[in-house]
Write a structure and sequence with these properties.
Structural class: alpha/beta
Bound molecules: nicotinamide-adenine-dinucleotide
Strand content: 5-15%
CATH architecture of the largest domain: 3-Layer(aba) Sandwich
Number of strands: 8
Largest sheet: 8 strands, mixed
Mean pLDDT: 97
Radius of gyration: 22 Å
CATH superfamily of the largest domain: NAD(P)-binding Rossmann-like Domain
Number of helices: 15
Number of domains: 2
Helix content: 40-55%
Length: about 325
Amino acid sequence: MNVENIKQVASIGGGVIGSSWTTLFALRGLKVCQYDINDECIAKCVENIDRNLDSLIEFGAIRAEEKEAVKANITYTTSIAEAVREAGFIQENGPERLPLKQNILAEIEAAAAPDALYASSSSGLLISEVTANAVHPERCVGGHPYNPPHLIPLVEISYCEKTDPQNVQKAKAFYQSIGKEAVILNKECPGFIANRLQLAVYREMIELVMRGVCSAEDADKALTFGPGIRWAIFGHNMIMQLGNPGGLKGMMEMLGDGGDVWLADMADWKHMPNQEYGEIAQASVDEMMKNFPDEVGHTNPEIARYRDKMLIEILKLHRKF
Ligand SMILES: NC(=O)c1ccc[n+]([C@@H]2O[C@H](COP(=O)([O-])OP(=O)(O)OC[C@H]3O[C@@H](n4cnc5c(N)ncnc54)[C@H](O)[C@@H]3O)[C@@H](O)[C@H]2O)c1
């Protein structure tokens, strides 16, 4: 199956992630068959997709008159067999439980074309585990999105020794054809790439706040208006490249062992102090919310709306809308 021939896709599980993938597939002109377990779950999925499209319209990413055409690309079913029968690409977004994902894959395999590509959205399970009992593991990859996939371009493709390398490239080409920025993990790795990077930064933020060096509010401000604003444009390797006339290599030579003192002092704990940190940081985050300008808002839904609006502005600059 060549990816340019993929016109019909399936989305299995229509919760937070599935409804967002379906929004994207349909926006990009693909026919999507959305599976969920019952009519109630499907009704929630329809609502999510409607809300996704309305906010894209509100923030100028698509025109209001496009909405009905996008919705017309989507059909819904409570039969996995029906969802996957005609699909060239199957995105699985079921609950994060290994036996369940394995059962879903078995149901998919019983009805899908043998060359249909399968990608699991799983955040925490390795593709070698999900496909342990698969009949056609060669066409299976991990396709881990960043939430919400209809907005955040990243998708992390992972594979295992049973995956056909050509199918890894096909999955990449498919995702690129719908505007995703696909990265490939050449070895299986828990947490994949982006969540590990995020956790490394968050561990140090927690350390700084728990040591009393700064408030949670100031740790956020330092990230947002310092490295974060650059990271919305380039990754850190490119930032290093631009920081020295000798490029990244020159920068590494210039830094020498200058970072070692910091590293020796930085967090290296292996257990998240979740409860303790929640107790310490919540008051500071509440203060931050109180201090936002009124046009941003002060409640979670108001601030999330502002985040989405800003996200779309950044995506427009990246020519993703
Ligand atoms: N939420 C996130 O931020 C996020 C980010 C990236 C990846 N993921 C991954 O995406 C997947 C889905 O997560 P979510 O947050 O959308 O969960 P969710 O609970 O919102 O959605 C799961 C959906 O699966 C449906 N479902 C239940 N049983 C099913 C079955 N047997 N077969 C198919 N579907 C079934 C549920 O009805 C529900 O609609 C998980 O594997 C998760 O790790 C989540």
